[in-house]
Design a protein that fits this description.
single chain, about 110 residues, 4 strands
């Protein structure tokens, strides 16, 4: 599975990447703006409730950045990012799977009989 990752800057981005790199079959593709250059999805601080047009415009920029990678799956460790980007992609009927990192970890854990 090839997926893009974002979220977390500086030292906080390292654990997520370590987890994902430990899952067999995963190839990470970095967004253009990653780590210290990572930008918000538009939903942080519940901006959607206060300024929905601003939130949508920022989310669209993030979605376009994701699309430029060519991936069909994007993963983040932020629930707000999952909700915001998933909603933006759904409204545009885009073929993009947006996942929380824990969803991916759960899929990677073998079933125990």
């Amino acid at each position: 599975m090839i997926l893009a990752i974002w979220g977390g800057t500086g030292a906080s981005s390292k654990p997520s990447r370590q987890i994902l790199n430990s899952i067999p079959g995963i190839t990470l593709v970095e967004l253009e703006n990653n780590r210290a250059k990572s930008i918000c999805c538009g939903g942080g601080g519940n901006v959607e409730m206060v300024a929905p047009h601003l939130s949508s415009a920022v989310a669209q920029k993030k979605l376009e950045e994701i699309q430029r990678t060519g991936v069909k799956t994007v993963v983040t460790s932020c629930q707000q990012c999952v909700r915001t980007i998933k909603g933006q992609a759904r409204r545009q009927k885009l073929d993009l799977q947006v996942m929380d990192i824990m969803e991916l970890v759960l899929q990677a854990i073998p079933s125990v009989p």
